[in-house]
Amino acid sequence: MEVKHVDGRFRLKENLGTCTKCSMFRAANLVDIGHTVLVKIGQSKHHSLLEREQAILHQLRGLSGIPGVIWSGTEFEQDLMIFEDLGPTLDDVFKSTGRRLSMHTIVFLAEHLIKFLQHIHSRSYIYLNIRPQNILVGPVLPGQQTNELCLFDFSLAQLYRDPRTYSHVLFLSGRPLSTILPFASLNHHSGNQLSRRDDL
């Protein structure tokens, strides 16, 4: 069955495409009129994918640059997650500026993304999904001089060490490629065990 409404509060209005084996939509908030949210719908054959992502986001809660989950659940036999709609992706912004970014903007992005990754790594996870389509660019918040940024789509994130003992996972080779080819690290292309350096 095609999903048109979610949780009785949100109406799908814009198909944003796919996001790691899930469909992405922008939806209108029927309770808080004028506000929109992002809805991620998992494909039935990948039933546990959103559950896994939700568990990872729970472990990363409280960190800057992590999307806020408004609601998650199952409707019409499909897994769904609803996120805050921070704004357009960096890819959208890049295209809207004629595919040009100022040096100031590039430095700003680098500083914030490195900080976000450092925080994620401190929780024993690696992100493994850096690409313009997964970076949301929000508005300038009151009292601040820069835009709010947020990483999106944590479906590829994984532990690089034991969260309790901090022992790193064993090095393995011959591993399958699990991310978007143009953005995969050399280690990933070589089939090697991934670690923090592959986020950079």
From TrEMBL:
Domain of life: Eukaryota
Gene3D superfamilies in alphabetical order: Transferase(Phosphotransferase) domain 1
Entries under InterPro entries matching the protein: CK1_Ser-Thr_kinase, Kinase-like_dom_sf, Prot_kinase_dom
Region forming the signal peptide: none
Native source organism of the sequence: Paxillus involutus ATCC 200175
Protein name according to UniProt: Protein kinase domain-containing protein
Xref: Pfam families: Pkinase (PF00069)
PANTHER family to which the protein is assigned, alphabetical: CASEIN KINASE-RELATED
Residue ranges of domain Protein kinase in the record: 10-200
Any one GO MF annotation of this record: ATP binding
Lineage: Eukaryota, Fungi, Dikarya, Basidiomycota, Agaricomycotina
